[in-house]
Design a protein that fits this description.
651 residues
Length: 651
Amino acid sequence: QKQTEEAGLRFMPQPTFYSKAERAVEGAKAGIFNKEGMTSVGQAKALLEKNAPETELEWSGVLDYLDLQKEEGNKVSKQDLLSYLKNNGVEVEEVLRSSIGAKLEAVEKSNVPDTLNNIYEVYRADDPEGDIYGSLGQLTEAAPEVTPSKYGADRPFTLRLSAKNDTLTFKTLEEADQYIQGVVSETLFAPTEKFAGGTAALPGGENYSELVLKLPERSPEDTYYVPSGHRFPEQNILAHIRFTERTDADGKRMLFLDEVQSDWSTDIRKKGVKKERPESIQRERDELEAEGYKIMESDAYKNIGYSERKETLAEQLETVENIKLGWPDYPAYQDKKNNLTSKIAEIDKKIKETENKKYSDLYDTPEKLLQHFEDLKKRMHQIDTDFPRYPKGEPDMPYKGSKWQDLVMKRMIRWAADNGYDRLGWITGKDTADRYDLSKAVDKISYYPQNKRLIAQRGERGTPEYSNVVDEINVSPEKLESYVGKDLAKKLLSTELQEPDGVPEGRAVRSYDPADHLVHTLRGQDLRVGGEWASNLYDKSLPKIARKLTKKKGAVGRVGIYGSSSKLNGALAKNGIKPKYEANYVDISPEVKELAQEGFSYFMPEGRGGAASAPVQTAAPQPPSGVIIPKVKLTEEEKEESRQLLQQLLD
């Protein structure tokens, strides 16, 4: 935020994202729109195509809208064009889950035992009914006439939380509630998802939070349903971000991204985009197909087929006769001749039944009908090529490829700028790869291709530590990736088939064929994979995006981070103890903060594969961004109102 009173100009934080298409229309130069606010469709298209990214124009459908206006008079008003863009542009919603305390909900009196005065269910504040996370525990209050002898008469409130094994008592409801708010904020909301190499957040981070960026609800056929077992209950998730707060080895306050991910983009890459043809095109193809079936069922077309069949049979009969001439004792001659002669006689009857039948006056000869049929097939093939259908893919979305990464970085740079962080940091590719390192969770993986059995074991057979962590049958080679990851699945299947160490235990498919028990095996350090994908994302792509977004006004580099709380970091550094981890980062310099608070466009310019973001719902504490005061000269009265508004925001 900056203010230049001398020039009469006021600057305030803009919304996080803006539409380049809308800005192009709003700031159009004089002459593009006339005094009545009208322009030609051609000028409107030229304005948008010059100033707005192709992805934004494509996703909003504004060019199609302008084509319709062309049919209705070739004119469009500035107001109508802006209204269309505002109502049809990309909208990205936010869902934040963070350390935000708990809610006590009293249980109905009819359900409370006589020995108790009240029972309170403990829910997360962002899940007040327990629909997502359920009850976190119970707080019970003993009835006045009941003496809780175990805890003392002066401590009637007894708390049991599911995430803790101990039972605590309190004198007052306020005292109990204060404890609950603290413990929920600090421990109950945590990165509970377990990976082979650890949890979803590195040790030492504080105020763990999760941010979901999603499209609004759409029709069922256009809805992206997150993978089963996913932590997040929302649908249409463009990306999710797990983040904490840290103090790095340089003493800088850092907003640290523990994980960024887009399942939607990944699934589109694997399965493709679900595609349906335009209704008019599909109708045309259906009509062509119906015409084709009608032709094939007609007597005229059947007559052509019968004649071609008769020619084939006649050629076969001639071949039999020729064999007889060269081989007088040909033993099968008479049987083959009789069979072919009989078939020719049957075909002659069918030819007679369908002769002199024409398909239509337009296609009244075999040559014309066959050409018509070929033309139908060519047009259908052209439609299939130009308008492919792919109903098994995923619904389309505007942030495919690496565009979702731009979306994430824009949002989190703005988050860091609004909330006073010195740096935005993010995990390294190495630490991410370690998180998914299966060698830390299991000692051996075996795959039996004949019966499609997958076994992951910990410990050595015959020892107390031995167990089958995974034992699944009917795991096809294609599904193997969903169990162990793409790289490890490829590595496992590339190993040489060998005899197993011992007879497989558990649910093996019984077979006496030795080949059924040949197995692909990986063990120990062979279970590690290179993690190229993690390095490409966190060490290459995100730093590149950070440089581009900040226009090199914030240093991009790598710094050490400790696996302990920020309170201990200073002592560790003074004693010469090196940080256990590293973080990539971009400095949130004053210039970067100013740049971020001016807002980012929904989409980057085309070419690199940019991205965007959109209007947001509830976010973390940040300066209000709903009030937009443009760069204009203000009257003295307006200046005073602006000063008062600014003071309210600062207070």
